[in-house]
Fold each of these.
Amino acid sequence: MNALSPVGAAARILAALGWPVLIGFLVTTAVMWGLIAWVAWRRTGTFAEHAPHDAGGGLGWVVVGGFVIPGIVFAALFVATVGVMRVFPMDHVAARARPIIRITGHQWWWEVEYLSDDLQKRFTTANEIHIPVGRPIEIELLSADVIHSLWAPRLHGKVDLVPGLVNHIRIQADAPGMYLGGCAEFCGLQHAKMRFVVVAESKDAYDKWLEHQREPAPMPNDPAALHGKSLFMSGACPMCHTVRGTEALATVGPNLTHFGSRATVAAGWLPNELAAVHAWVVNAQAIKPGAQMPALTMFSGSELHDLVAYLEALK
Ligand code: CUA
């Protein structure tokens, strides 16, 4: 999550501003500490021996160091920032093209909808945004509850998701890879655990992913997973989650249709691995206190095993 190592146009512009500021800060700091060290080294002895005496003058240094230099630095930064804003308009409120993805912030996860005029092609996933490499992608940003802020530092600057307002952002990744992001606006107890991943991949891989995500959930063929499915459907799970192609249709929590194909669980917080999913199902409240996912302690060990086998089979 290094904003100074950009892979997209929006992040590159911000890094171009960030680098000179960082270098200027480091050089100034080094010079100041050098001067302090030099004085400390030269002036050993007691304070009485080195009592400051007013030799007059010196006001010039105060004016130069306190007003002229900061004035020049801030004016230069201001001009550079305004220049960048003109080249790269920050008009988040107006889309420049039709968005293909709609992201809705929730406490504390990201709902990711792939839009299409053809309703058959629309689908919803969570916490993982796939994009084709090298192409600008328009995204619409909404919030279901409080203000959140989308930020994948290597791709773009922060943009808020505000209840009642539709914001827009354009992102582009110039190299394939998995880019981490997180919520950048304090939104409650688990703000720090509201993460996501952007997966930038070749056009072919992206198209294949789209095609697959549009499919309904696969029917598990392994007996454990099948038993897990009946536990899922008869328990509390369908009251919050959707698994497309089944009777689970609720939209309180993340859509689990292709849960097994995602890289993370708990909004980018844990890897999507057996141990993590077990822990999440049994005691989400220990991992993310305050999240809407309850601790489901009613399952026996073998039931839990089968339930997680079903979730992982949702490839
Ligand atoms: Cu969502 Cu902080």
Amino acid sequence: MHKQLIETAVKARQMAYAPYSHYLVGAALLTKDGNVYTGCNVENASYSPTNCAERTAFFKAVSEGERHFSAIAIVGGKEGEELSKHCTPCGVCRQVMTEFCDNDFEVILGTPEEYKVYKLPEVMPLSFSNTEL
Ligand code: THU
């Protein structure tokens, strides 16, 4: 399941629109019902409207009525280079994961050949969530 999700993220990465950073990211988000939503980063000449691959996947899924997620695979690297280093999610994407996911949510980082699986609290310790409100 993890490897397959990474492979789906690799395909999603092909759609990345990153003419400014030339750093291409793909994500594949698995719902608890077994549906998969993909995302890529979408950059902008004004820079700040840029959306990360992870948030693209989450917002596609949530806007289709999904609310329960079990894992996300993330792959990223420089345009024209082999995928090697792990692409770790930015703070804003970790906060979005915190909004919709529980402590069992898995964050899968790496490549189809080599990846590591983290639980959400490992990548987002001491998080602020809706349980505080
Ligand atoms: N980016 C993502 O899409 N996800 C990450 O986890 C890290 C960064 C994107 C944002 C921007 O388009 C490019 O990578 C360089 O920061």
